[in-house]
Amino acid sequence: MVQCSTEYDLAILGGSTGSRLAAMRAAQMGARVALIAPCWQLNDAVEASFRAIAQPGLERSHPWAHGRALFEVECRHRPLSPAQLRACGVDVVLAGASFSQTKSLKVEQRHIQASRYLLADGYSFSPSPSGALLCHQLMQLDVLPENITLVGGGAAAVEWAFGLSRFAKVTLLSPQPRLLPAEDGDIERLMAAQLRSLGVAIAALDGDFTYAAEQMATMAETGQVVLVPQYQVDASLGMAQLGIEAGDLSVNAYLQVRQWPQLYAVGACLGGVNRAALAQQEMAIALDNALFNARRPMGYERVFYGIHGLSPVGRWGLTEQQAHHRYGARAVVFKSSCLPVAEHGGDTNFCKLITLGKTLIGIHLMGRGAMDLVSVLARCETMPTLAPWAAGQYRSGTLYQAIYQAIAQWENQRWQPGQWRRDWAENWFNWRRSQGN
């Protein structure tokens, strides 16, 4: 007999670290929260395996056994266990759920009824086809294959390619023509160049790739086929009961699903950039809107996140293409790069600042510290505020130098002949000389 549980204020369908943090935050604010996470262990394995191979101090000379040891350490120190969340007042359900005709969630032998629902990352993953492994499953191998064909697109695939290149010869096959379609063109070009410098071959898949058995067999002839794990909306979730067909999940500015506003959605299930930092920014907006009936819009023109690589990337705001599409010639770009210091010989230091008048509308950094610096620069908001900060932080051969040089370009442009500042200054100097002062 199916029993109905007490009604919740919010039911979160997830499993990623971001969804766990969201559930804990909602409970701390006094809400009655349920977290349905059938893939809890899989989320831990995916996140721990990436953290293991992306360790900054891990070099090519380290054997694969060292990477596996780091993975085991990461697994033992995963944040926010089910017991910890339950101690905070979160009802953690480690089983799959399905929406019923009454628009409640059927979970095992009960129904979960909530005022609002939130679909987040980590609820379910795309399955691994025959003849291929998912990235985290490589940690089960005692010996890593010499050649790996990595299939996936976007920032996640690039990060895995960088990490695995420390242990094997990697071929990255992207289902999209562009390696990083959501990123600025200069950042994409530099990331591709660094991958190739590490021996990673990059190619785009021909036509529609469906993970068919014959395609797996063909690629397996040159090495182990590995797929980048992808979050997906499982058909067993019963979204059709809400009037949502497969592949038709879309949200409004408040992250409410258009077909059923009681459901909010964030993260990779929306089909955008698969970045945990971006999903957490969406989560903060969705939580306020879902719990307190707020109407906070999600402003994607001010989001920030990073991409791990040989030289980390930090991004805030619009790309150059987006800025020119929205503002035309009024959007002005200033970019600079510098050679790294000797001990950071593999780094690229690059800075691109996109402005609208005095206002910053886009920041794209590449180099050591880029992920932290991009949020610092974004808080400055305007170029006159940023300029004195950069002057005080200048260090030759680092990312700070590239930032300083990009700002210097902006300042030089303001004083070019024909600009009102230059005309005013020349008139002032002419008048002062005429006075004999």
UniProtKB/TrEMBL annotation:
<dbReference type="InterPro" id="IPR036188">
    <property type="entry name" value="FAD/NAD-bd_sf"/>
</dbReference>
<dbReference type="Pfam" id="PF07992">
    <property type="entry name" value="Pyr_redox_2"/>
</dbReference>
<dbReference type="InterPro" id="IPR023753">
    <property type="entry name" value="FAD/NAD-binding_dom"/>
</dbReference>
<feature type="domain" description="FAD/NAD(P)-binding">
    <location>
        <begin position="8"/>
        <end position="282"/>
    </location>
</feature>
<protein>
    <submittedName>
        <fullName>NAD(P)/FAD-dependent oxidoreductase</fullName>
    </submittedName>
</protein>
